Each structure stands twice: as C-alpha cells, then as structure tokens.
Amino acid sequence: MIILDHVCKTFVGTDGQVEALKDVSLTVPDGDIYGIIGMSGAGKSTLVRTINLLERPTSGHVFVDGTDMTALTPEELRKKRREIAMIFQNFDLLMQKNCLKNVCFPLELAGVKPAAAKKRALELLELVGLSDKASAYPAQLSGGQQQRVAIARALASDPKVLLCDEATSALDPGTTHSILELIRDINAKLGITVIIITHQMSVVESICRHVAILDQGSVAETGEVSEVFADPKSRAARSLVFPEGNIDDLFKDLGPEQHFIRVVFDGSQATSEPLIAHMAVEKGIEASIAYASMREISGRTYGSVLLEISGGRRTVEEAIEYLTRKENVSATEVQPHV
Q1: Is residue 147 within a helix (H) or strand (E), and if so which, with residue range?
Q2: How much is the pLDDT for 52?
Q3: Which of 27, 163, 230, 315 is the one with CA 20 to 30 A from 155?
Q4: How far apart are CA 139 and CA 321, in angstroms?
Q5: In angstroms, rounded to a whole number, what is the distance separating the alpha carbons of residues 196 and 184?
Q6: Helix (H, G, I), strand (E, B) or coil at 67
C-alpha cells in the first residue's frame, strides 16, 4: 500500500516560492491501477516523483509498504527504490545499446551475473512482445516498441510498484491502447501496483480502477473511476469529464421536470443494441444526449453519456433501473453543484 500523508512540496526560484503540492493525502491499495489526472501545471509529475523521493517533500510523509520513505538513509533509499520502477513519456533508453543490453543494464548495476542478466532480459522482452527485437537499437524501433523496451527494463528489478509519468502522451491512439493493454496485463499477471500520471481522460477511463483529480497542487476529488465519472463533484473533475463545456451551464435554466442522468459504460460488452432507443420504445422514456464520449476497446465499451430526461421523479427512477440492467453499465442522476 502507498500512502501520501499531508505531502507538500515548495520550490524556491528567482521569482519566489511556488507551491507545487499542497497538503496532498492519498492511499493507493496494493495491486491497484490508480490514475492521477489534472491539467498542465496541476502538480502531477511532482506528485509521482515524491513517491520514490526523486523529489523530497517539503513536509509530510510517503509510506510504501509501511516504510516511511522520508525517514530512510541514502543507502536505504537506494535499496527501496529498486521496488519502485518508473517509465516516462520520452522512454529514456540508452541509444547506443540494443534492446537486450538496455534491459540488462539495471540488472548489471545490481550485480547480476551477465548470463543470468541476459536470460532474465530475454524473458522480459518476451513478456512485452519484443523477443524478436533483442538485437535492434532504439532508433530502429517505433515509439510504442521503445516504450515496451522501457517497460521491460523497468520490470528487471522485480518491482512492487510501477510509476507511469505520462507514459503514453507521445504515442498515437492505437499505440496508446496497446501499451495500456500491456500495462493491464502486467498488473494482472504480476500483481504490480500501477500509478498512472496523465492529462488524458481516455487513459483513466480505459485502465484505472481509482482516480485522484489534482488541481493546482491540491487533491480536488478521489474515488472509483465509475463513481467520479458518473457524478463529478469538484469543478476540476467536471471540467475534465466534460471537456466540451462546463456542465454547470446545463443547470442554469433547469426546470422542475428536467433531469440529467450520467450513464457510464465500464467495459460492457459492445453490441449494436441502441440502448437509449429501446428505452424509449419499451418504457416510453425519451432522452436527449447532452454529451457523449465513447470508445470500444477489445470488444468492450468504455466511456459515458449524459442524458437529459423530461418527466417526474418516477420517470428518472425507471430510466436508471432500465439502463443499469446491462452488465457493467451504471447510471446516476447528476445534481446541480452550487
């Protein structure tokens, strides 16, 4: 388990002090895939770097498996960091070394004998689907392949935690999907706790179980992804969930018979079934789509739809009951936030 306890980080520059993190407290369960999302400058990268103390908090504590990282000696910290791997947006591969040697590199630094390091590196390249690229150099690989090598290298120390700092930001959507599927597979096979730093809602929707919304260095909201996306309570969360416009504007002239329902598709089996049209035919409930963000991944549907429902309380309840009959679909009435 990872616990951030009232973590603050202040940078001092020529223009004065900058509070990058302000009293941040989070708990990440073992084996979770946890997303930390926010706009540019929210403090996401600073936050993830405090977990392995690449950035030492100005105040507060960071606990990894019960160990207070801020209390360790330099030698103890170096040893503990082997349990916390990290991958980055720009891959950070050694361009003069081939894929096999890139993955061997941390093993050799740890004192593993060359034959054993090579054997382990080949196993990891196979795990990430690049067993045929052992002799290739990074410049000969696509961006997605380079990130797979970086993931293999990160796994070389058998870490308990994998930190992903905007790891898919430089990749196209198709490659991003394949990398996220790989990370999901690694999490399932190895039980590694994954923390994903991103500014992309699509990344959080497709892979994360829990999410924290970071806003100007503070935690604005946390919870299960489906819950936060179903009814975002903070302004920061609503601006991310509804990027085309502020949901608050929808409530300005809301009449007594007008209601909004947010429907979240969290991996439901993709079909051609027109769910909303069927609801109108079978239940007589008409709904207009105020916002929609949907995608299909591996034959399953992810995303959300905001529906405007006209009718009384009973109509809203019937709509929610009908929509949630489908597996992995949740529906919640969205209330105005003042």
Answers
A1: helix 143-154
A2: 93
A3: 27
A4: 54
A5: 11
A6: strand
Measured in degrees and rounded to the nearest 5, phi and psi for residue 283 equal -110, -10
Q: How many CA atoms lie within 13 A of 253 on its CB side?
A: 0
Q: Phi/psi of residue 132, each to 5°?
A: -90, 0
Q: Residue 36 belongs to what H/E stretch?
A: strand 33-37
Give the tens place of pLDDT for each residue, 205-236: 889 999 999 999 999 999 988 778 766 788 88
Question: Using alpha carbons only, what angle is made at residue 323 by residues 319 and 324, rounded to the nearest 5 degrees?
Answer: 120
pTM of the model: 0.78
Residue 252 confidence (pLDDT) above 70: no
Q: How far is CA 220 from CA 26, 91, 192, 194, 214, in A?
A: 11, 30, 26, 21, 6
Task: Look up residue 156 and give its amino acid.
Answer: A
CA distance 319 to 298: 28
- Helices 114-127/143-154 angle, 10° precision: 130
What is residue 297's three-state secondary structure?
Answer: strand
Contacts of 88 (CB under 8 A, 6+ apart): 150, 165, 166, 167
| Percentage above 90 pLDDT, the chain | 53
